[in-house]
Amino acid sequence: MSNEAQAPTGARPTVETNGVNPVPDAERRGTPRGLFAVWFAWNISILGISYGIFVFSLGLNVWQTILAGTIGYAVSCALVGILAVGGPRTGLPTLVQTRFAFGIRGNVVPAFFAYLSNMGWKVTIITLASTTGANLFAVLWPAVFADADGGANTVTVVVWFVLVLAVTMAVAVVGHEFIMKIEVWISWVTSIFTVVFLAFVLPEVNWGALGDTPAGPFLTFIGGIIMAMTMVGIGFLNYGGDFARYLPRNTPARGVIGWTTLGLALPVVVLLIVGALLVGSNPALGDAAASDPIGALTALLPLWFFIPFSIVIVISLVSAAITGIYSSGLALMAVGFPLKRSWTTAINALIIAAGAFYLLFISTSFLATFQSFLSLIAVMMGTLGGIQLTDFIRQRRMGWNPAMAQPKGYGGRNGRWTALVSLAVGTIVGLGTVTSADPNFAPVTGFLLTPEARDGVLGASNIGVVLAMVLGAATYALLTYVLKLDPRPDTSLLVEGAFEKAGTER
After folding, report:
1. Does the N-terminal or the C-terminal CB of the chain have fewer CB atoms within 10 Å?
2. Which stretches of 282-302 are DSSP H helices?
3. Minimal CA–CA distance to 429: which of 377, 468, 374?
């Protein structure tokens, strides 16, 4: 898991100064292989086993769960890899490069919702890290840190939340170089402990019971694919290029796509298989994971290993939160906040605190809220990703010029209605054809479905996520390439030849 995208050996990491500007060629470094570690560390977590349990809970058998999850991960992670190619080509974060398609002002809409998506994931991950640490203390010192039922008390959870959030924010502020360095070590440590964990839990699999669960219908199988896509790949579409943008401009696309896809998909596919085997032989594990996805799994461990493994779980979740918070700071800058990345990170801390309060003290089911969040935010993120992938054709023809992220007159556009209309069409249809198990989210979903469809297999499949992506991309392709309704870059305020030299602001 070598990290070849880092600074030269011995260089001392400093606070990153690049924001939403193109990374200068002089600061480019490394090879695509370095991308593997950051994505691998992000996803080599016990939470990946819970993902397998969640897919199974839709009503699939073990083998359907493994196949659906693998397909969903492979397809969605490959899309992230393709979008990551824009990083080295332009030197821009993904949510700044989307200005090419939407215009600098039009991009505020998708960038804002991408930011919310990022924040939702960070709320989930930091909450799980906090409860894992708090539960460890409750087991070790129940008289001080546990409540009457043996779980961690509220004060312990809150203290752990503050600690986890502070560490996450501090590392995220330092920036790209430091993150890329520490992710290598986190990858190794987490991988080793995960292998040991598997050695403990795999003997718990009752192989003779794996065939007891009946197969689910075809639409439920499709729902499993979609759920897998939303849990991993689609959630990363809006920042696929954030860590690839420091690579040299002419880095081969196949390397960026391959190493990004492998780093994302490999750990979650392996862990999904383990989760499917565990829950297939012990259905009660699914009910336990619905309320406490990590606690249900660590309960299978002896105390001597539960202690260090809980610490590793916290580290792995914090690792995932660090990379996400780093990207969310860039996302907030892409929306247009005139603040330094360090200040946007502080704003993120406040938002995460509010979201964690909801997940910890208001939501009655982690799984219901998690599934609802995934389906809602994946609708717009999928549509955004489909449009951006389709626009790559145009961006490549124009030489990936970063000036297209500038305002009208300076190489870009203030808004491109073709992309905004496509985003609206895909998002509306998508929201209208997904459903929500969380009553607080349900009113904005399923309005294009009949009551029977909402409560049936079609509603459970959340096929609207795929419909949104396909419809958004198809609408944009129709307007741009077929009807040729293409608002071109505007260079009217630049002197001749300046278009090629223009960049974006820090």
Report:
1. C
2. 284-291, 295-298
3. 468
Quick: pLDDT tens for 60-87: 999 999 999 999 999 999 999 999 999 9
The alpha-helical segments, DSSP class H, found in 105-217 are 108-140, 142-145, 154-174, 176-201
Query: Is the model's pLDDT at 198 over the cut of 50?
Result: yes
The residue among 378, 286, 367, 289 whose CA lies nearest residue 56 is: 286
What is the dihedral angle through the alpha carbons of 33, 198, 68, 268, rounded to the nearest 10 degrees?
A: -30
For residue 48, give Cα distances in angstroms to 20, 93, 258, 301, 415. 31, 26, 21, 17, 39
Q: Using an 8 Å Cβ cutoff, are 90 and 245 in contact?
A: yes
- Which amino acid type is present at position 78? A
Token pair for 493: 């305020």
β-sheet bridge partners, residue 152: 146
- The residue written with tokens 């699914």 in the block is 286
**Nearest by Cα to 4 from 268, 317, 255, 267:** 255
Joined together, the tokens standing for residue 351 give 């938002």
Under a CB-based contact definition with an 8 Å cutoff, are residues 89 and 248 in contact? no
Measured distance CA(233)–CA(378) in Å, rounded:
10
CA angle 376, 131, 37 (to 5 degrees): 70
Give 310-342 as a DSSP string.
Answer: HHHHHHHHHHHHHHHHHHHHHHHHHHT--S-HH
